[in-house]
Write a structure and sequence with these properties.
Blueprint: H1 2-43, H2 48-60, H3 64-77, H4 82-92
Helix pairs in contact: 1-2, 2-3, 3-4
């Protein structure tokens, strides 16, 4: 019984470790995407799409304040940008 418990515990530890690595990898991809779009928005300050994408990835990272700033800029450049409006509304909820 003790050896079965030890084996099951080891399996659970490995399972959760793999899940942690997957989550860390996913977060790193989001950070890279945010940094990319932030750079694009600096190079192309008249691109509402670049500001939207930077805002979207900031939102995915949980940085609501930064997301709001980028989305506000996207909407200032294009007040009819529906995806930016929708995401901006999610920030206020």
């Amino acid at each position: 019984v003790l050896s079965i418990s030890l084996i099951l515990s080891s399996i659970l530890v490995v399972f959760f470790y793999v899940k942690m690595l997957e989550a860390k990898s996913a977060r790193n991809e989001i950070v890279e995407s945010f940094n990319y779009w932030r750079g694009v928005s600096k190079k192309h300050p008249n691109s509402p799409d670049a500001f939207f994408e930077a805002g979207y990835y900031a939102f995915r990272l949980g940085d609501r304040e930064t997301a709001g700033k980028y989305l506000d800029e996207a909407l200032e450049l294009d007040p009819s940008f529906e995806k930016a409006k929708e995401l901006s509304q999610q920030l206020t909820n």
